Amino acid sequence: MTLLFCVALLLAYLLGSIPTAVWYGKTFFNIDIRQHGSGNAGATNTFRVLGKRAGTVVMLVDVLKGFAAASLTYLLRNEGLTQTELLGCALIFGFMAVLGHLYPLFANFRGGKGVATLLGMVLAIRPDVAAVCIGVWLLVVIASQYVSLGSMLAALAFPVLLLLRAFGQPENPLLIGFGFGVFLMVVITHKKNIGRIIQGNESRTVLIKMKKTK
């Protein structure tokens, strides 16, 4: 169990360390995405700098990183662990992937903010709640045009929905506590965005363009 856990832990970090935005930008555009736009190596900055196709690819791969990391609990399925213990392992593995995204081994430890990777982890653990969080993100971004605000409110929605038993069943306190911890982390990684929102100079992203009527 100890060896398998350590192997899975390392794999989770290495998965998270895949610098999707950096590699995609260098391979197809011959640029380091961290030297353009907001300087962030994530999907949002890729959308703005390299376009929708590049941003979509980066986002999907980053989501997959978190999903795959949390799913590494399958390596431990024959180790006699309880459901709570398996949940704890999934959370740890998912967090290691997020940590890898924030501080990627393969990109001089300069990564993104980890929101897409967090989403992938949540999709692996609670896909029903994740779907609602995606809806919250979409509504907020469409209404405000602030991706950062949508990310923070979607992160908050996850533990709040669990706490309120929105899905009609008691939730594991471990998952709720982890959810609030994740929300705090997302807020911390977006502190510069919060300042720009308050000042009114945060970059806007238009998801749905309305056609002008003649």
From TrEMBL:
<keyword id="KW-0594">Phospholipid biosynthesis</keyword>
<keyword id="KW-1208">Phospholipid metabolism</keyword>
<dbReference type="GO" id="GO:0043772">
    <property type="term" value="F:acyl-phosphate glycerol-3-phosphate acyltransferase activity"/>
</dbReference>
<keyword id="KW-0472">Membrane</keyword>
<feature type="transmembrane region" description="Helical">
    <location>
        <begin position="54"/>
        <end position="74"/>
    </location>
</feature>
<dbReference type="Pfam" id="PF02660">
    <property type="entry name" value="G3P_acyltransf"/>
</dbReference>
<dbReference type="GO" id="GO:0005886">
    <property type="term" value="C:plasma membrane"/>
</dbReference>
<protein>
    <recommendedName>
        <fullName>Glycerol-3-phosphate acyltransferase</fullName>
        <ecNumber>2.3.1.275</ecNumber>
    </recommendedName>
</protein>
<keyword id="KW-0808">Transferase</keyword>
<feature type="transmembrane region" description="Helical">
    <location>
        <begin position="118"/>
        <end position="140"/>
    </location>
</feature>
<keyword id="KW-0443">Lipid metabolism</keyword>
<feature type="transmembrane region" description="Helical">
    <location>
        <begin position="86"/>
        <end position="106"/>
    </location>
</feature>
<comment type="similarity">
    <text>Belongs to the PlsY family.</text>
</comment>
<comment type="subunit">
    <text>Probably interacts with PlsX.</text>
</comment>
<dbReference type="GO" id="GO:0008654">
    <property type="term" value="P:phospholipid biosynthetic process"/>
</dbReference>
<dbReference type="InterPro" id="IPR003811">
    <property type="entry name" value="G3P_acylTferase_PlsY"/>
</dbReference>
<keyword id="KW-0812">Transmembrane</keyword>
<keyword id="KW-0012">Acyltransferase</keyword>
<feature type="transmembrane region" description="Helical">
    <location>
        <begin position="147"/>
        <end position="167"/>
    </location>
</feature>
<comment type="function">
    <text>Catalyzes the transfer of an acyl group from acyl-phosphate (acyl-PO(4)) to glycerol-3-phosphate (G3P) to form lysophosphatidic acid (LPA). This enzyme utilizes acyl-phosphate as fatty acyl donor, but not acyl-CoA or acyl-ACP.</text>
</comment>
<comment type="pathway">
    <text>Lipid metabolism; phospholipid metabolism.</text>
</comment>
<keyword id="KW-0444">Lipid biosynthesis</keyword>
<feature type="transmembrane region" description="Helical">
    <location>
        <begin position="173"/>
        <end position="189"/>
    </location>
</feature>
<keyword id="KW-1133">Transmembrane helix</keyword>
<keyword id="KW-1003">Cell membrane</keyword>
